[in-house]
């Protein structure tokens, strides 16, 4: 061939600073691009073969090799795909790849946000110049009678073409690295990079360290034959293993996948040795192509926040983790792989957000997840209940974030009940219709509210346990979406069911108790209510108005500003007139000599009520202990 040269029309001074800025955070992108091209070249040849336009040898085996060489400072990417003719190199490399790079720069040079383009797709072959002083292509087309071609470019603005000595079909890209790329000649670094992007590439991928291989040959040569004891071992070197799995599970038909395979795949991909709870295999070709597996992970401990990982693939090549422009944000709490070959990746993220295809993917996945949960709820209720502790943050977060998801799952949300087991909201309201007057009671802290739970149990009442961070938001969501639904914390109200009816206490006794306790507690604003409870053992309990408590919690959340003067704690001390202690206080009221005792007792009753409501403040605790000692002394 005639020795040719040419250049691309681009301002040399501009090109690299701009690309570098783009690729700075993910310098390894060039490997993804070159190996993807190698894989594309094989796919193209396979297609040609399938339609009878290529004639592959019987024993044809497709493979891609990456060779790193520290000493030579080179990386080679070798494929046995379709190769290129001279004309094709001119067209695809000189014109398309080079001008593609120019387009790319034109489009993005002014954008300052580095993360705009997903995985920086779009630069393709040209990204090789990110890390190289010189790039060389040696290629031989599969076409009969093709001549091998060499293409060389120093620096990416000018190129030369000449004959090549390549004898086998396919393409070798040789990178003569600049300082920027040297780290990738390290075998481990390269292996990690290849595993990141190509763990599921459709063709076998091998890595070789040429520098190490050369050293070994030297060593072997210098070795005395006598030293070579283990002849068998040296005679037959280990067959190299491809570093990818060419048939990822997500491509298989769900019918043909076993439970064991799903679990193994999960462990391998996410390095999570806890078994996943269950999974959803997405497998659709029409009207769009979407494959993948979503796993519901098991939380390691109760208060762990869910932290998922959704790996996005493009034709079995890894693109990025957790792209929230493509996947509904709440799904990022799951773990999974998604292969979306129709995804337009050479566009900016903000474009993707408004893309019709992306919206369809999101809607489809959301529906699949809701369907799976519904089928578990309907057909495997025991398992569903068992999973609930692990999956409820996910479901609730999904409801808060995605209206469509909420609509699909609102009826299959379950609640742990103080009666044991789980209930739906519908069943809860139905079962407690008579006793609750449509109120929903909940427990936010089982230990702290144990006393109230006991009273509920005694009176055949039921509360649901909503004790995680997300539950506050979730209750608000339900209240805003479902008419008539109102949540009350278990200590917010006292139900008629707990009362005997008439208190049997005279008006002036009530005002006596009021005065007595206000003085004992030294709080004039404390509300006092006298009730005759069915449970006679409890002298008093504290109620805290739901409304004012929520206000306070909210103000605490917004910067911890003290707004207690705006939303005073509406606490009510309920005195139980059927309790002996309360009765004795009333009996002693006329007795001047008992004044001190009455004070001690009333202070103590208040503290006890308080303690079964929330932990005492340190001061109050100190006083409580002191008073306890005093009371004990009176017994001896
Ligand atoms: P893209 O892959 O998006 O088309 P690239 O810049 O990566 O863009 O590559 C440009 C073109 O160069 C490819 O479309 C292909 O025709 C050709 N090419 C690149 N690498 C190879 C290869 N290893 N074998 C055959 N053709 C290749
Ligand atoms: Mg490409």
Secondary structure layout plus pairing:
Layout: E1 4-7, H1 12-23, H2 29-50, E2 63-69, E3 74-79, H3 86-108, E4 132-140, E5 149-154, E6 158-163, E7 170-177, H4 187-198, E8 204-209, H5 210-222, H6 231-235, H7 259-270, E9 278-284, E10 290-296, E11 309-314, E12 317-321, E13 335-339, H8 349-353, H9 356-379, H10 381-401, H11 403-409, E14 414-417, E15 422-424, H12 425-431, H13 433-436, E16 440-443, H14 450-458, E17 464-465, H15 469-481, E18 487-489, H16 507-521, E19 527-531, E20 540-544, H17 546-557, E21 571-576, H18 580-587, H19 595-611, H20 618-635
Parallel strand pairs: 2-8, 11-13, 16-17, 16-18, 19-21
Antiparallel strand pairs: 1-6, 2-3, 3-7, 4-5, 4-7, 5-6, 9-10, 10-13, 11-12, 14-15, 14-17, 20-21
Helix pairs in contact: 9-10, 9-11, 10-11, 10-15, 16-19
The structure holds adenosine-5'-diphosphate and magnesium ion.
Structure description:
There is one protein chain. With 636 residues, this protein is an alpha+beta fold. The chain folds into 4 domains: 4-215, 2-Layer Sandwich (Heat Shock Protein 90), CATH 3.30.565; 249-382, Ribosomal Protein S5, domain 2 (2-Layer Sandwich), CATH 3.30.230; 413-490, Rossmann fold, CATH 3.40.50.11260; 499-635, Heat shock protein 90, C-terminal domain (Four Helix Bundle (Hemerythrin (Met), subunit A), Up-down Bundle). Helices cover 41% and strands 18% of the residues. The chain has 20 helices and 21 strands. The chain has an 8-stranded mixed sheet. The longest helix has 24 residues, at 356-379. The radius of gyration is 37 Å and the shape is elongated. The protein starts with a strand and ends with a helix. The model is unreliable at 114-120 (pLDDT under 50). The structure holds adenosine-5'-diphosphate and magnesium ion. The site of adenosine-5'-diphosphate has 18 residues, from α2 and α3.
